[in-house]
């Protein structure tokens, strides 16, 4: 019998996109988990894009079903908002098994992980979000659990300490990370499959926007869907957030339909330009040009100048600017490019960076 997946544990971790007090304007982009969940694909067939990844996962699932064995451990990596949590929740649903959810930062000691391991039923899934932030002690504790489905528990202290070996059910770990480079090699090697999620094409985002507008029962024109998609920085979560904003704007300032005209006015108000650059991206580039003469500048220094944590810059601002070709990463730091200067209509700095 197919069981409905049961979602347990501490749900979504705090999102990286909420830099809140740091001057990072997340007022509207703040991740609204409920909204995210409402629009999240429920089945693999509803997942738009990432075709190569999805096809490989289908094979993986098919083989698992035919052999009636638990799925091998799976690591998903890629920038925020591209669908790691989505895929992690779709897979157990496809197999009709249970899903437990936790995250690296909430596992401060092995005892925090133990209940998840002992609760894991045969073939069930344990999703560990932000797995790169799991402390070393927890990481060592999970090795035998992943490899041999057992844990070694130390009881008592000092001379009386003894280790008890406990057998676990065969389960599957799905790890998600925005920083696969921060994973230790032994942990990475325990994942049978590793999948990297990449940014989406505009047409895929158009499809996501259209589907989600339908889910939200909001009429949207094709060109408006395209305008939203191309400002979404290749990221479905951004597309969803922009769609929500356009929908609010259409309700408040127009007749509720999302048209090209509505979208343009809505984005002007948000200060998002045609490429999807936001105020903080422009501040980043301007700081690099004006304060650091075009670079090279270290990300820490940029973070201090902008009053934004350098992690946030690395995870959320830089990947898109790199992808646009607006900055380059050199061993000595970040350097602004001519394309960025042109896009922002800035004059080249007197010295430094690419202009020396
Ligand atoms: N392939 C997709 N097709 C349709 N919608 C998607 C897809 N991927 C993501 N989304 C939408 O984007 C939202 C964000 O995706 P998700 O939460 O899975 O990202 P994530 O990679 O886990 O991000 P983070 O690193 O911040 O946790 C989802 O709620 C879903 O609505
Ligand atoms: Mg996630």
TrEMBL record:
Instruction: List ligand-binding residues for DNA.
Output: 329, 334
Query: Could you mention a single GO BP entry for this protein?
Result: DNA recombination
InterPro entries to which the protein is assigned, alphabetical: AAA+_ATPase, AAA_lid_4, DNA_helicase_Holl-junc_RuvB, P-loop_NTPase, RuvB-like_N, RuvB_wg_C, WH-like_DNA-bd_sf, WH_DNA-bd_sf
**Catalytic activity annotation:** ATP + H2O = ADP + phosphate + H(+)
**Root EC class:** hydrolase
* UniProt region (Small ATPAse domain (RuvB-S)), positions on chain: 201-271
* Compartments it resides in: Cytoplasm
Q: What is its EC number?
A: 3.6.4.-
Has keyword Acyltransferase? no
Where does the UniProt entry say this protein principally localizes? cytoplasm
Question: Where do the annotations place Mg(2+) binding?
Answer: 85
The residues the record assigns to binding ATP are: 39-40, 81, 84-86, 147-149, 190, 200, 237
Region Disordered, annotated ranges:
1-27
Q: How does it assemble?
A: Homohexamer. Forms an RuvA(8)-RuvB(12)-Holliday junction (HJ) complex. HJ DNA is sandwiched between 2 RuvA tetramers; dsDNA enters through RuvA and exits via RuvB. An RuvB hexamer assembles on each DNA strand where it exits the tetramer. Each RuvB hexamer is contacted by two RuvA subunits (via domain III) on 2 adjacent RuvB subunits; this complex drives branch migration. In the full resolvosome a probable DNA-RuvA(4)-RuvB(12)-RuvC(2) complex forms which resolves the HJ.
The entry sums up its family as follows: Belongs to the RuvB family.
Name-wise, this protein is: Holliday junction branch migration complex subunit RuvB
């Amino acid at each position: 019998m197919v069981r409905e997946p049961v979602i347990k544990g501490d749900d979504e971790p705090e999102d990286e996109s909420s830099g809140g007090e740091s001057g990072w304007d997340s007022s509207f982009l703040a991740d609204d988990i409920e909204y995210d969940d409402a629009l999240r694909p429920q089945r693999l067939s509803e997942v738009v894009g990432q075709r190569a990844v999805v096809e490989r996962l289908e094979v993986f699932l098919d083989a698992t079903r035919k052999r009636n064995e638990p799925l091998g451990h799976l690591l998903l990596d890629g920038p925020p908002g591209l669908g790691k949590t989505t895929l992690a929740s779709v897979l157990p649903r496809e197999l009709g098994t249970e899903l437990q959810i936790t995250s690296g930062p909430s596992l401060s000691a092995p005892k925090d992980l133990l209940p998840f391991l002992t609760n894991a039923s045969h073939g069930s899934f344990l999703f560990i979000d932000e797995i790169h932030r799991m402390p070393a002690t927890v990481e060592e504790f999970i090795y035998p659990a992943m490899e041999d489905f057992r844990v070694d528990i130390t009881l008592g202290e000092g001379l009386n300490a003894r280790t008890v070996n406990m057998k676990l059910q065969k389960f599957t770990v799905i790890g998600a990370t925005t920083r696969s480079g921060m994973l230790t090699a032994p942990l990475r090697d325990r994942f049978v499959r590793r999948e990297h999620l990449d940014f989406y094409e505009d047409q895929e985002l158009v499809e996501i926007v259209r589907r989600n507008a339908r889910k939200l029962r909001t009429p949207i024109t094709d060109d408006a869907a395209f305008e939203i998609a191309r400002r979404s920085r290749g990221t479905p979560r951004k597309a969803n957030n922009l769609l929500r904003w356009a929908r609010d704007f259409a309700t408040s300032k127009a007749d509720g339909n999302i048209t090209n005209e509505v979208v343009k006015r809505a984005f002007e108000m948000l200060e998002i330009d045609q490429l999807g650059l936001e105020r903080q991206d422009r501040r980043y580039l301007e700081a690099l040009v004006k304060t650091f003469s075009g670079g090279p500048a270290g990300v820490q220094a940029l973070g201090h100048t902008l009053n934004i944590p350098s992690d946030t810059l690395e995870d959320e601002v830089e990947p898109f600017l790199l992808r646009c070709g607006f900055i380059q990463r050199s061993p000595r730091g970040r350097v602004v490019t001519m394309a960025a200067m042109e896009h922002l209509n800035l004059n080249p700095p007197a010295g430094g960076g690419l202009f020396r």
